Amino acid sequence: MAYANATIGTAHYAVTIKARHYDLISDEPVANGGKDAGPSPYEILLASLASCTAITLRMYADRKQWDLKAAHIDLHFTREPDGERIDRRIRLEGNLSEEQRARIADIAERTPVTLTLKNGVPIYTEMDPPLASVQHKAEVEERLDEAIEESFPASDPPSVDG
Asked: What is the pTM of this model?
């Protein structure tokens, strides 16, 4: 299965990421206190969805022997008062019928990363070394609950009005 490791030091907010044998950098834009050394966490999330969509569509078109020359996937994350959403626009190149284009649109809604994001996924966190006591764990959980209620603008994507 997939695995990634991220490390941050004292540089605001550059993170080195190791995914399989690939090295990546994530950072925040200068406006959020970073040095813009790499894409932000939300940009990496969108890149994951875009690449999964493109790969899945290519695999499907190849299997069906359809004339898909290229697929362009554009994504935008939006946070609004009523919730968050990702808008995806797919532009296809090639000699494809309306039925083929409709089937590709249907397949895009069922790519692995699309389904993971739509269905949600549990995240289990443990500390290394483990927390010393149950009392300490309860105190940490209470502080985490408080932190979740706070706003962290450096890690939030900008809202889009319009």
From this structure: 0.81
